């Protein structure tokens, strides 16, 4: 077997080794005997060099006209389109999601790149009148400086793109520290940006582990804004770090997303949606459907048919076109899922499907887990309260719409929710009363589009929204301008 390819960091426009000279393996979770390359094991000195390069590059990038920045992003978007198939395959090899979904991930990066490229000719502010004569007022977006981006493994190219593109179009420079399980997709994105003509030092890429490379980035005084997606625990630590210097921070963390199925729902559609929401990306989405509240009038039928379909899903290597559910990202995540299945059993939820690791045939080489369904769950059980991040769905019987809402809102998270009903009154009440950042009607809890705000309420985040124009609000600061052409001192609130 050929030795694995060693990928370098990208700092100040150069591909460089880490200061330690050490590298780490990027495993294929479907087949651990295969490596998707080796990456630099970076530490605080690599991060410091990257932040220094980004600080240098900021002086001219902030003055580059936004439409020119946009032209570079348009070129990057076209290159990504050409490379979509290659990048999707690389993603499946490093992360496991089925090829079709990996294509979707790259497509999301493409969409975000074109969307933000277009913002280069907008970046609108406001102009307004003054309360004083011969005076004009306006507000404009200004860049912040160096942004530190820390990303998870479940959307290895989409999430880096969600953060890099709005940061760049606003005139910031960036240092990205991708997840240690999936550095290749972020590498492919950064390399494409370089080839599209992003100037040296504007985008820097530092691979490595959270405590070694992520923490120093969050701590660095010259990284003025930090954008993080990942676990609540790490998010909390980063928030504490950033509080010390009042650094701008956006956090996108967990979910415990619910699908509500009312007695008047189209059950075929609801079952189809629940399968996709719960087991798409092997349940490893922050928006995954992990709770399904079903009205008692249709509960038995829903449970029976949903379980049958879940049992029939084909689990395997995502590169095999017949596979519907890929592997779990790594061994520790697999253990977490096993633990939660144990917890569900102890809580006397009824295990209706799955519940175990799969090791038959080729599956022995990877981290596979059977699509799992718990039935007759109580909304207060830990499996109905805590994020599992795997192919586990809990069915909760409910007797009314009001009870469904109460169950839905009875968790600490508030990312996504969904309702299946043909009753317009219930649909509108749900849209108003579900306390989540995203609500779907007659569709599962997953499926965000890049031109709409993305994020959650309560402990899912800290109030910011990614994607859409709302992302620009995080990656820019409002600057307010007063222009007095009266040739005399005019005092607001006094001389009116
Ligand atoms: P994690 O939060 O440990 O990792 C996310 C990123 O943060 C990675 O780039 C990691 O290297 C970095 N990081 C880790 N420790 C850090 C530190 N002390 N300072 C700065 N950066 C640090 O998430 P992990 O371990 O990959 O997954 C654990 C759980 O997190 C999952 O089971 C799931 O519940 C949740 N998660 C949520 C995601 C979401 O989309 N909201 C995505 C991935 C994970
Ligand atoms: Mg990997």
Verbal overview:
This protein has 496 residues and is α/β, with parallel strands linked by helices. The chain folds into 2 domains: 6-253 and 461-480, Aldehyde Dehydrogenase, Chain A, domain 1; 257-441, Aldehyde Dehydrogenase, Chain A, domain 2. It is built from 13 helices and 23 strands. It has helices at 44-61, 66-95, 99-119, 158-169, 183-195, 210-219, 232-243, 267-279, 296-311, 331-346, 401-409, 424-433, 470-475, and strands at residues 9-11, 14-16, 23-27, 35-40, 126-129, 135-142, 146-150, 173-177, 203-205, 223-229, 248-252, 257-261, 289-295, 350-353, 357-358, 368-369, 372-375, 392-398, 413-414, 416-420, 438-441, 457-458, 477-484. Strands 14-17-18-13-12-20-21 form a 7-stranded mixed sheet, sandwiched between helices. Helix 1 crosses helix 6, helix 2 (66-95) runs antiparallel to helix 5 and helix 3 (99-119) packs parallel to helix 4 (158-169). The protein is globular. It starts with 8 loop residues before the first strand and ends in a 12-residue tail after the last strand. The mean pLDDT is 98. The structure holds 1,4-dihydronicotinamide adenine dinucleotide (NAI) and magnesium ion. The site of 1,4-dihydronicotinamide adenine dinucleotide has 28 residues, from helix 6, helix 7 and helix 10.
């Amino acid at each position: 077997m050929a030795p694995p390819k060693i990928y370098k960091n990208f700092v100040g426009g150069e591909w460089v080794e880490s200061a330690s000279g050490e590298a780490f393996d990027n495993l294929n979770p479907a087949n651990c005997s295969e490596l998707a390359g080796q990456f630099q094991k970076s530490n605080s000195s690599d991060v410091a060099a990257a932040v220094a390069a980004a600080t240098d590059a900021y002086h001219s990038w902030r003055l580059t006209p936004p439409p020119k920045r946009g032209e570079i992003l348009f070129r990057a978007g076209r290159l990504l389109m050409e490379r979509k198939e290659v990048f999707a395959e690389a993603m499946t090899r490093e992360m496991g999601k089925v090829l079709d979904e990996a294509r979707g991930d790259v497509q999301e990066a493409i969409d975000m790149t074109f969307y933000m490229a277009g913002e280069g000719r907008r970046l609108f502010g406001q102009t307004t009148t003054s309360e004083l004569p011969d005076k004009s007022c306006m507000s404009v977006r200004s860049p912040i400086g160096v942004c530190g981006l820390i990303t998870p493994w479940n959307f290895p190219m989409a999430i880096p793109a969600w953060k890099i593109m709005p940061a760049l179009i606003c005139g910031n420079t960036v240092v990205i520290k991708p997840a240690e399980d999936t550095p290749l997709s972020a590498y492919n994105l950064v390399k494409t940006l370089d080839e599209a003509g992003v100037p040296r030092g504007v985008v820097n890429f530092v691979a490595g582990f959270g405590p070694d490379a992520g923490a120093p980035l969050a701590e660095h005084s010259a990284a003025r804004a930090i954008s993080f997606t990942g676990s609540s625990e790490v998010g909390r630590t980063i928030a504490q770090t950033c509080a010390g210097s009042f650094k701008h921070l956006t956090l996108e963390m967990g979910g415990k997303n619910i699908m509500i199925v009312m007695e008047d729902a189209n059950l075929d559609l609801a079952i189809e949606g629940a399968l996709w929401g719960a087991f798409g990306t092997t349940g490893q989405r922050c928006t995954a459907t992990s709770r399904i509240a079903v009205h008692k009038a249709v509960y038995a039928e829903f449970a029976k048919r949903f379980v049958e379909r879940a049992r029939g899903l084909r689990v395997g290597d995502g590169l095999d076109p017949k596979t519907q559910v890929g592997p779990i990202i790594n061994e520790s995540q697999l253990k977490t899922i096993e633990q939660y299945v144990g917890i569900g059993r102890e809580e006397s939820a009824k295990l209706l499907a799955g519940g175990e690791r799969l090791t038959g045939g080729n599956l022995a080489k990877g981290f596979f887990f059977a699509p799992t369904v718990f039935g007759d769950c109580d909304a207060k059980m830990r499996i109905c309260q805590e994020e599992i991040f795997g192919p586990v769905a809990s069915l909760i019987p409910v007797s009314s719409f009001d009870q469904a809402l109460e169950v839905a809102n009875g968790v600490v998270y508030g990312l996504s929710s969904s309702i299946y009903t043909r009753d317009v009154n219930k649909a509108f009440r749900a849209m108003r009363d579900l306390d989540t950042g995203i609500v779907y009607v007659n569709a599962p809890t997953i499926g965000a589009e890049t031109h709409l705000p993305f994020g959650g309420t309560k402990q899912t985040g800290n109030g910011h929204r990614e994607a859409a124009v709302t992302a620009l609000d995080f990656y820019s600061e409002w600057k307010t301008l007063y222009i007095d052409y009266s040739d005399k001192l005019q005092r607001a609130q006094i001389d009116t």
